[in-house]
Amino acid sequence: MPIDPSAVVAPTARVDPQAIIGPGARIGEFCVIEADVVIGPQCLLEPYVYIKRWTTMGERNEISAGTVLGTDPLDKGFTGERSYLRIGNGNKIREHYTISRGTSPESVTEIGDHNYIMTSGHIAHNCVLGSHIVIASCALIAGYVEIEDQAFISGGVVVHQFSKIGRLAMIGGNTRVNSDVPPFFLYSGFDVEAKGLNLVGLKRAGYQASDVAVLKKAYQILYRSGLKLEDALAKIESEIPTPETLHLAAFVRRSKRGICRE
């Protein structure tokens, strides 16, 4: 049965017969759910949420009023083929937010688990977001952006297409991210600039003083040693090889746009 008997669907909601509504889900007044949508168990859709086709949602997601998920990509080259939006478990997406599905046929926009996405912003086509990310109000994430776990994107940030943001990076308010942002560090400025370690985020994530000291040394080698980038990465890998510093070096090596500078 497409709508589980334990689900609660408001009388003014419109659910396509080809949509699947999981156990314990709650669908608010005036919601619209198109065909080929899967809403997982215990999800909550507040009033006026619109879920477009080819969107899949896991368990215990909370979607606030006025949000539209699975929108056609904001891409002039899009011609209407099937593509997907896939959302994991335990996410909170607040009011008046939009997330697009992929542009190319059968491509995907992916959102992981336990992310907190605040009001009035947009995540564009083919983005890949990890888990435990915070995106504050009015941030705009362009197409093909990748954001690793536990990153914090402040209000008013704009992220250029194809940019990558590393794990536990923090981007200050109203920053323009137009290059790749390595993990564990703090960034701000009109064009994104490295400013030091994300000390608050690291402490909240359970890192001890000894861990922070190693990352501080990695920051100094990467940004202040005067070494060429390849030499700085080699020094980090040989002198302070921890899981975090090796992840940092690997992130920088994968960068195609180039990383931001201090």
The overall pLDDT, averaged over residues, is 98
Which regions contain 5 or more consecutive residues with pLDDT less than 50? Answer: none
Task: Please compute the radius of gyration using only Cα atoms.
Answer: 20 Å
What share of the residues lie within helices? Answer: 10-25%
* Total number of helices: 4
Strand coverage percent:
25-35%
N- and C-termini, Cα separation: 56 Å
- Derived structural class: alpha/beta
Overall 3D geometry? elongated
Number of strands: 28
Provide an overview of this structure.
The chain starts with 7 loop residues before the first strand and ends in an 8-residue tail after the last helix. The protein is elongated. With 262 residues, the protein is α/β, with parallel strands linked by helices. Helices cover 17% and strands 26% of the residues. The strands form three sheets. An eleven-stranded mixed β-sheet has the order 1-4-7-10-13-16-19-22-25-27-28. The protein has helices at 199-204, 209-224, 229-239, 243-254, and strands at 8-9, 14-15, 20-21, 26-27, 32-33, 38-39, 44-45, 50-51, 55-57, 62-63, 68-71, 84-87, 92-93, 98-100, 108-111, 116-117, 122-123, 128-129, 134-135, 140-141, 146-147, 152-153, 158-159, 164-165, 170-171, 176-177, 185-188, 193-197. Helix 3 (229-239) packs antiparallel against helix 4. It is built from four helices and 28 strands.
